Fold this protein.
Amino acid sequence: MADKKKRRRAYSDSEDASQPFKHLLKSDDQILQILKSFSSTSSSSTSKPLTLADLSLSSTCREVSDLSLSSVQSAIESLVLQLTHQILSGQGFSFTVPSRSSSNQLYVPEVDRIVLKDKCTIRPFAHISSVRKTTITARILSLIHQLCLKNIHVTKRDLFYTDVKLFQDQLQSDAVLDDVSCMLGCTRSSLNVIAAEKGVVVGRLIFSDNGDMIDCTKMGMGGKAIPPNIDRVGDMQSDALFVLLVEKDAAYIRLAEDRFYNRFPCIIVTAKGQPDVATRLFLKKMKTELKLPVLALVDSDPYGLKILSVYGCGSKNMSYDSANLTTPDIKWLGIRPSDLDKYNIPEQCRLPMTEQDIKTGKDLLEEEFVKKNPGWVEELNLMVKTKQKAEIQALSSFGFQYLSEVYLPLKLQQQDWL
Amino acid sequence: MADKKKRRRAYSDSEDASQPFKHLLKSDDQILQILKSFSSTSSSSTSKPLTLADLSLSSTCREVSDLSLSSVQSAIESLVLQLTHQILSGQGFSFTVPSRSSSNQLYVPEVDRIVLKDKCTIRPFAHISSVRKTTITARILSLIHQLCLKNIHVTKRDLFYTDVKLFQDQLQSDAVLDDVSCMLGCTRSSLNVIAAEKGVVVGRLIFSDNGDMIDCTKMGMGGKAIPPNIDRVGDMQSDALFVLLVEKDAAYIRLAEDRFYNRFPCIIVTAKGQPDVATRLFLKKMKTELKLPVLALVDSDPYGLKILSVYGCGSKNMSYDSANLTTPDIKWLGIRPSDLDKYNIPEQCRLPMTEQDIKTGKDLLEEEFVKKNPGWVEELNLMVKTKQKAEIQALSSFGFQYLSEVYLPLKLQQQDWL
């Protein structure tokens, strides 16, 4: 009977009694003080980011920038004029296209991004191997020119369908679209070609989306869908102390419902898995305009770190635009491999890493962006050694709200990020 | 030279000159009149939907309904009390669980939904084959009870991670969760267990999300993310004449940017592909509260029709909750197989159907929900005969804005839906 009673009590109190480390938590006011000082040092240190021009690199790099629609239009018109002169002078019709192959990519540790070097290839019309690609390039340029005149946005899929006969498959029109960005020296968003939206944002942020003012503290639990076209996003205002970048939906929903951003003023953003271009641009814009530190909450597995790296230093595919797409100095808050033992994540909530996971982890250890952060190397080494991974959701084993009520507050209090 | 001039003119005017059927368009005011009369007949005809109770069915059906959190809590407590009596009286410990196997499913044409019949199975604790499942059921009931006490929402993934050792994999906890819904006679959303959000909404709709009022005309181009928890959605107001249900992102973005909802008052919603539970519940709520007709814009392929059918009459997996999840009387606006010729979609924008596509199409022809709509049967027969499919994006071959400027207005003007 005594045993039964004990069991019943343990059962009803289980959620609170089993929340390890809760006793370490200071008051919210004390944690807020810690965050305020972090936020202010962070904004002063990032106020003057390095650019490629500040460095004396041995090879020249090619970078694109945001151009206005009218500048894109002029750039296309001058290019066509130049081509016409070329043809009239008897030199034939050819484009000079920056190479985007991996041999032309470079990781620059000073700016912590992958960038494109300056190798170019000639794409002549009068050659059997390049006549199709040259034609596609001309067609894409003409379509972009139409977008400039109409001032509308379209998706890559729309673009493909305007001339299926020529493009044959979407990979071809997509690739040439990136070529055109490089050729014109502008970002893909400047071309008004957008990718489908995926990300959501909630918390202490006010911004304008296509002229409408959006208050992200008043977006309920669903949050605001991140607009696909960053050029119509503006007027960002915030009293947040940091941006919390969350890998997955489930954790985002937990934090949105608990209105975590009201306890610790922050902006919560997620791309629901792999970062899409719109979310990357949105994060970058928040970092630049609001000068807030960015803390990342990802799964403790190689893909979590890989996602962090795409936000932080870019993907090889779009290295020509890494300056606009990457957000420097993202801190790895959690779930880190060392957290598994530190927070006593139960064995059954840890998953064994597959062969592929371990290979990906080892490959990451060779990447420059990991190497330059000794803390990350240590964590990743631990992951590969223990061969264990864990999702953010593993924290639910201590109760559904352990993430928002204990884990994150304690992380913030202890400034436990790398 | 003359030829050159002609080509140049054709080039610059191409977008407008090549927009077939634009000359058929009446003025927006005339189209609005058509929509208004459609919208009013639609709201009066659906004002008294049939329920299963209105029918004299040979077999009894099991349906769940939305219950308040406190009712769910009481239901769990009475169930446990009943089990205790059972055990004390020496009958042992067992759950009576409604069967969700396909032999227990029924399509009811009168209400146009798949429903669950009333077969049940006994799940005894004292049997080797069911001891685990019985334990899992008890554990899930206890977790749901905690959610009721705390009044929070969690995802299915969270639920799984609270006891990985017992559940072993998420399929097991997910399946028992559906069992528990059936046992308690309530919807899964009543249990406060939610799926990740996916859908977005934009247009002439105002609603409250977790206490915040959201005006969907002021959500820019990104729109509002549909909240994962329908029970915190309320106060819907709208001056729209119809709901436009869009299968995919790209078309949604086009319509949002063009603010199509201001030209023809409507609410535009998409689940970005396969319909998720949150979007289905949201659509249903709009239909019920606002009494608006729903027009669907999907790809012209078997999956487009399948998606339409999930919105319309439910999925087999959640047939116990079809009354809450399905939106009756969705009209198939386009892209319909007959539109391919009618709108002169160029051959190169049509795709050949694969063997699998054709099989899926033929299977659909056997489904009751298709059979009962002769127009749909005709369209589907045409698709299977021509072996051609097309995406919504195929309309981009007539210019990026052909969808919003010609195709949809003409469809509305001609009341061309089935």
About this structure: Residues 69-88 of chain A form the longest helix (20 residues).
